[in-house]
Amino acid sequence: MSGSPHVDNVRDEGVERRSMRWEDSGPVGGAVALLGPVSRVAVVALVVCAQISGTPAAQAAGQDCAASGRAARYVVVFDKGTSADSAARQVGAACGTQTVYYPQIAVGVATSADQGFASNLGLDRAFSAQAGRRAAPHSHQPGTPAPVAAAGAVPGADRTGDQWDMRAIGAAWPPGRSPGSRSVVVGVLDSGVDATHPDLAAAIAPGKSAGCLTGAPDTSAASWLPGTSSHGTHVAGTIAAANDGKGVTGVAPGVSVASVKVVDDRGYVDPEAAVCGLMWAATQHMQVTNSSYFVDPWGLSCAHGDDHGVVHEAMARAVEYSTAAGTLNVAAATNEAVNLTPSPKSGTPPGGTGCEALPAGLRDVVAVSAIGANPVKAGYSSYGLGVIDLTAPGGDGGDCVLSTVPSGYAPLCGTSMAAPHVAGTAALLASAHPEASPRTLRADLEHEAKPVPCPADYDLTGDGDQDAFCDGYSAYNGFYGHGLVDAAAAVPAPPAPDLRLVR
């Protein structure tokens, strides 16, 4: 099939090429074990606090608030156990207004027109991606809306013959067989999913879908449908496109998907949106999420200052909470082609850069690298011993991953495309084992993966130099983790036909 080489990472539908971006590229543009099930913990409903003016509280505390005239949104980390009222008072005293608070993890969202808000509250407690972008503006504008085909206009030809990726992981299902259960919901934390696409219409769970761009969940359909990007629809198709003899077929065509919009129409993924997406998935009891992005305002954070610490802590708390609530989180390893192994000063093997990808680099997240059709680690895929858990087809060169887009079907390459193969396989396991905990699902994914040894020679350019170095051994290494995800192993074998003669 046709595709495009992954030359560099494209943020969103050809809008901009820069360090913060989607984890894919392709012809349509593109911009990221323990045993035993455990019972699901009770989940407290999200608490969205009423807006409270911060100025009176700040003035009462003797704080001189200086409004710049343009408010910015901040993610704020509090001491665990902080009540909503206490958090609101602290925000108000720092010249801000609290707009949403997640008491389960003591993380909130605030707005302030005072440029000193973060300093007032503490640089190790508050961070604004919006303010960071305004301080270092980029000359790009939102793209045009992703084309959506009229009803019945999506081509109906069978394209499964072009899905080399599904065959690579054993997910080439016989026609009409739809592995997976509709009761299993995969949260697609992305740019929105086209609910009208014929390959996705039956899988979409609108009641569990939401927009999270402000840091608070919005369940109106307009908030979670795609705007200028086909990215989320592509990811959703890889997970759950219908096995109906038309178009493409997903890894788990029998499961449901929820559209959780965390990426805006310029391709930005602000930390508060990512936190909201993870928390929403947990409160909606989604068994699996897929995050094919990494959070702004960094590409990969290689300088661990206070601002990175705030975002890391907020994301880590959200992931920890969602895991405890019963959600397995899967994420793309990024397309930076860097070694994500922690730096040597932490006692890990040498060679690591100390760079971190969020959320992929967090402990409870299943981080996925990408291979091409060869199969060898795609040149763009980041890697790292102790970080990468599994690998899956992401495409490379002329062989990208074919999936759904609002106008029909298109190939894209990237770790964005690899991650949903793993999320779909996790959904198959959750369907077969409804009581399995995230740790059990993860252990099963790793146990059933097909080991991929380090390549003897990784000279992709042919210049005589190794383009990356693979640490580890056959069963577990920095390029492929525990190996290539195996969807076939996650699906119970169909019952054998009864061959007894009928008299």
TrEMBL record:
Q: State where composition is biased (Low complexity).
A: 146-157
Q: Which domain of life is it from?
A: Bacteria
Where does the Peptidase S8/S53 domain start and stop, copy by copy? Answer: 182-466
Residue positions of the active site: D190, H231, S416
- Residues annotated as region Disordered? 1-22, 130-161
Q: Which InterPro entries match?
A: Peptidase_S8/S53_dom, Peptidase_S8/S53_dom_sf, Peptidase_S8_Asp-AS, Peptidase_S8_His-AS, Peptidase_S8_Ser-AS, Peptidase_S8_subtilisin-like, Peptidase_S8_subtilisin-rel
Which ranges are annotated Basic and acidic residues under compositional bias? 8-22
Alphabetized UniProt keyword annotations: Hydrolase, Protease, Serine protease
Q: Pfam family example for this protein?
A: Peptidase_S8
The family classification in the record reads:
Belongs to the peptidase S8 family.
Protein name (Swiss-Prot/TrEMBL):
S8 family serine peptidase
Q: Which organism is it from?
A: Amycolatopsis minnesotensis
